Amino acid sequence: MPQTRPATEQTIPATAAPAPPAELSLEERLAFINTQMTARLDEAAVAYEVNTAHITTEPIDLADIVTDPIDTGPAPLPDLYPTPVAALLQRAHHRLLTGGWCKDALVDEDGARCMLGAIRIEARGDRGLEAGAAAVLLDAIRRKFGDEVDSVPSFNDAHGTGRVPLRMVNQAAHLADARGL
After folding, report:
1. Mean pLDDT by 10 residues, the chain (181 residues)
2. What is the largest CA-CA distance in the chain?
């Protein structure tokens, strides 16, 4: 009978240690994770189908669920400024935001307005109020861009987008409010 040694004395043949796994690149790791997630999602989809196969459902008419949004128009503008010039500039800013900005015309064919066009329509015929708002706006522009700016229309037309002109109308409203105008 062969002689057996105790388990502590048995030797295990020496084998080379496995090489450490090579470092995966980011793309390889993402592809691996994508494969794993796809398999998990496929399993979950099958499990869902199996678990819900016994539930009876009635078809739903989407016309009962999907409705058109109600056109309520733009949100009302809160009165942030108690003074007339500041309130006019605030309304002009809101008009430019909601109605659109344009250049090279007071009003374009789509109804968008330039800075002065927005002030003019919001002044509602009060030429003194319009002139006061335009003066404060020009002053705000000159504070930011220097005295080389000739007028509000030339400043407006010098821009390709309405981002800067709209910001200047908003800053002019703050300036008019600070001045109590």
Report:
1. 55 60 84 93 92 81 67 66 89 89 88 91 89 92 86 88 89 89 80
2. 122
Counting DSSP H helices and E strands in the chain, the numbers are 7, 0
pLDDT at 134: 92
**Count of structural domains, the chain:** 1
CA distances from 145 to 54, 66, 82, 152, 164 (A): 71, 50, 28, 12, 11
SS3 180: coil
Range of the domain at 105: 84-179
Residue 39 lies inside a defined structural domain of this protein: no
Is the residue at 17 inside a domain?
Answer: no
- In sequence order, the β-bridge partners of residue 107 are 113
One-letter amino acid at 59 equals P
Record the pTM.
0.57
- Helix, strand or coil, per DSSP, at residue 8: coil
For 58, the token pair is: 């009635």
- The tokens for 139 are 């002053």
Q: Are 121 and 155 in contact (CB under 8 A)?
A: no
Question: Smallest Cα–Cα separation from 117: which of 157, 145, 146?
Answer: 157
